[in-house]
Amino acid sequence: MTFHLVGGAGVSPPPTQSTDHLPSLRIRRYPSDTADAEWQLIAPLIPAGHPSRRGGRRSVHSRRDIIDAIRYLAHNGCVWRALPADFLSPWQTVYDYHHRWSADGTVNHVHNSLRDQARAAAGRDTEPTAAIIDSQSVRAAETVAKTSRGYGAGKKVNGRKRHIAVDTNGLLLVVAVSAASAQDRQAGPALIWAVRAFCHKVSMAWADSGYSGALVGYAAGWASACRSSRNSPAKSASTYCHGAGSSNGCAVRR
Q: Which of 44, 57, 59, 68 has the most CB atoms in a 10 Å sphere around its CB?
């Protein structure tokens, strides 16, 4: 299982002044382009790219144009080489920045900072105390290696499965990717471990009945009280794990 995005507390780089970035000269014409208000929020979180003490060339590409190009690719699902020329930056440059920011934690820092701001605007504490986990199977392209894909009998999907943890506002906390053949109850403990490791205040998690079994036992090992309840006329079961209790047993309510 691969954790492609892990949200939570971490060391934040010093903020970048918006005046440190090169101005953008292109016209905003795509729905994915950043509005001025959006860029004002994102700009302090993006490295400006000044030369280091050892020297180096100054940046010649606007960071806003780079962000807009990445958002265009994510929004439209095209290949890197199909990036429109009006972004003024070669696709190789955009790819390089995307790879660099993913590796050095910039993408996580932007995501976590915006999530904290959204929670604060909603009147919530920036650190979540509860999570909701679920999964979704997606078909894999022919280019996806057989070693990282599988057949999910439940959804009849040959591909991958993404296991997601969100807060109670639906904002992303953790994403884990596995073969579609992986059962939810098998992936649940790893997902809960990641949530507990990177979101230290989370003490409760909700999940559907697909996560019963191993997840309940794993959460009980954290000295938690775990309950499985049936709470709808359709008898759809749900499981929740509470980390604040002192009981290490599991109870079932029907």
A: 68
